[in-house]
Amino acid sequence: MTVxxxxxxxxxxTAPDFTLPSLDGxxxxxxxxxxxxxxxxxxxxx
Amino acid sequence: xxxxxxxxxxxxxxxxxxxxxxxxxxxxxxxxxGMYGFRAIPNGYLIDENGVVQYxxxxxxxxxxxxxxxxxxxxxxxxxxxAPQDPKAEAKDGPSAEAIALFQKxxxxxxxxxxxxxxVLWRQGFALDPDNYIIRKQIWAVExxxxxxxGDVDYEWQREQTAKGQ
Lengths: 46, 166
Prior knowledge:
By secondary structure, chain A is mainly beta. Helices cover 0% and strands 24% of the residues of chain A.
């Protein structure tokens, strides 16, 4: 039984906004960068 | 965007190693997995001035690879990338929202030092959505820190775990 998540972002979609903490704990939002080009990478130590 | 459930303490050494001048944020709760619809990393999204996604690569977007770095450099220099849609993003089944919810509940227990209870919920999440490697690898990293944080990450060991269905 798998509940489907409704969102799968595709090319041409508006990137969903989010706010997450920086390494120092300060909140950072994607929308802070509106008007600039953004390169988002998702990675992890594992 | 570090997807480490164990947070900034685990992510920071890698940013320092890379001499990163970019903004790094920590998504310990895997919020973005559900929001953007991915189960594994490394991923890349290139977003234009209006907030519209112009390029997307799910899996294998390792900035250490020359082809990945070239795409990002072209983007930074203002080039328009006529990128085809990543077929993985066309697949309709995103990650299980229920599995992510279990992961997030488990993380609260983990942060309260109830590691065994956290592991029960994380394993339930893994069972619901075995292809969710954000959950799966986080279980590995907590249970087997020597495979992750004592020198290089042991990817051969990870392949063995995957083959065994662990």
